[in-house]
Amino acid sequence: MITQILDSPYAARRSNVVQTHERMPVPKSNTEISQQTRWMIAVRDNRDRNAFAALFDHFAPRLKGFIIRAGASAHQAEEIVQDVMLTIWRKAAQFDPHRAQVSAWVYQIARNRQIDIARKENRPTPEELKEEPGTEPDASQILGLEQEARQLRQALAALKPEQREIIEQAYLGELTHQEISAQTGLPLGTIKSRIRLGLERLRHELKDLKQ
Amino acid sequence: MSAISHHVPDAMLAAYAAGNLPHAFAVTVASHVSLCGQCRVALGAHQAVGGAVLEDTPVVAVSSSLKDDIFAQLDAPFTPEPVHERNGIFPGPVMEALKGREPQWKTLGMGVRQDILSADTNGSVRLLYIPPGQAVPDHSHNGLELTLVLQGSFSDETGRFGVGDLEIADEHLEHTPVADDGAPCICLAATDARLRFRALVPRLLQPLFRI
Asked: Which of A68, A127, A142 is the best substitution to test chain B (most B C-beta atoms within 10 A)?
């Protein structure tokens, strides 16, 4: 059911994008690329403090709620929020809107920081993919990713409360991988189509590289 | 480069994104993702779900001084943690576990060698070196064992595993991996419990060898 929601209208649109795949300039209008992404690009490219303040206003209270839910005290949570926000500022160069939505990128930083602090060890992370310097932003790809993220949120919002609770527990780090696999179909079925779309994009990028 | 055909299961990627895998498994998953575009994309999808959960987390107000505290640190000198780059067959996360050094092989007999990267009560992760045609000693598992091939290949009752392939074996699998002809097989092997080797080392000696 959920995969169908994500599958039907969007898959067609996405394959259109893949076929034409024109490099378009980043639109200036805020009806296009989301505010968050534009703030993050401004921080990355221009060290824009106003944009960083906007990111803080948006994310800090959510991060605090999220980190408390994941088991930290209110005091600890503020320290981790501070840490995460500084990491966003310092590692902004690693943000690539073609690969990750701002919220997904911030989520991973927040989980990594919380675990590093709790376990007093650095969590192993994959090698970073390096973007070619001077790569033009590909607006269609950024928008495609944002569209996926919106549809994902809608799909999550449409879940029954008890299903949603399981997803939240899984991504807050409250379930082992055995417990997640025992939840037949749920968190994973939701994202199957996203994975498939991501793979289409990856194959397309690889094709580009070969040309 | 031959295609990778054995991947990280979704539940394990979700637990990795959420930071809820034992360290030994996290090193192995991060190493596989470094080598595998498909799992990198899938991990991105899990991070997107995490991002959606973060976006919809009820906010908790942060203290009034937090923003100023953070802004006061934006210009502070900052030394990024060293990034361990891939070195030959060893992906970044393995180099990090090696702390940048070359492997220090210790012989286990029959030409088989190992370098234990870390071991504690939550499990262990090691590099294994198996000469062509040599069997990894017949063993069964108390828990779960992840084996990522970094060089050469091996085959066992379940199939053939080449560079980048990840084998997941649980306590029900009694298998005898044999290194294929060609280059010596070098693997990253992680367990969340002690392996029980049957042939090579008497069980009484296992604490000595930490295997």
From this structure: A127
Residues within 8 A of A (CB atoms), B 146-165 only: none
Alpha helices, DSSP H, located in chain A = 2-20, 35-46, 49-69, 74-90, 102-119, 139-157, 161-171, 177-182, 186-210
Contact at 8 Å (CB) between B6 and B161?
yes
| Stretch A6-24: mean pLDDT | 36
Q: Does pLDDT of A25 surpass 70?
A: no
pLDDT at B141: 61
CA distance A97 to chain B (A): 12
A49 contact B CB<8A? yes
Using CB atoms, which residue from A157, A187, A202 is nearest to B14?
A187
Contact across the interface for A198 and B49, Cβ inside 8 Å:
no
Chain A CB contacts of B81 below 8 Å: 122
pLDDT, tens digit, 9 for 90 and up, residues B101-119: 999 999 988 899 999 999 8
Q: Is the pLDDT of residue A17 over 50?
A: no
Lowest mean pLDDT: which of A28-42, A106-120, B4-18, B32-46?
A28-42
Q: What is the CATH number of the domain that holds B1?
A: 2.60.120.10
Interface of A with B in 82-141 (CB under 8 A): 82, 85-86, 89-90, 99-108, 110-112, 114-115, 119, 121-129
Question: How many domains are there within chain B?
Answer: 1
Above 50 in pLDDT, residue A8?
no
Instruction: Look up residue B49 and give its two tokens.
Output: 């779900």
Reported ipTM: the value is: 0.87
User: If you write DSSP's letter for every residue of B59-84 in order, what string do you get?
Assistant: P-PPPTTHHHHHHHHTTS---PPPPP
Q: Nearest CA to CA, how far is B202 from chain A (Å)?
A: 31
Phi and psi for A166 in degrees, rounded to 5?
-65, -45
Identify which of B30, B56, B78 has the shortest CB distance to residue A153. Answer: B56
Range of the domain at B211: 1-211
Contact A173, A70 (CB under 8 A): yes
Higher pLDDT, B3 or B66: B66
Phi-psi region of B19 (alpha: psi -120 to 50; beta: other; left: phi over 0): left
| Nearest Cα to Cα of residue A15 among A203, A199, A180, A197 | A197
Cα angle, residue A130 at apex, residues A127 and A132 outer, rounded to 5°: 170
Asked if A78 and B62 come within 8 Å (Cβ–Cβ), the reply is: yes
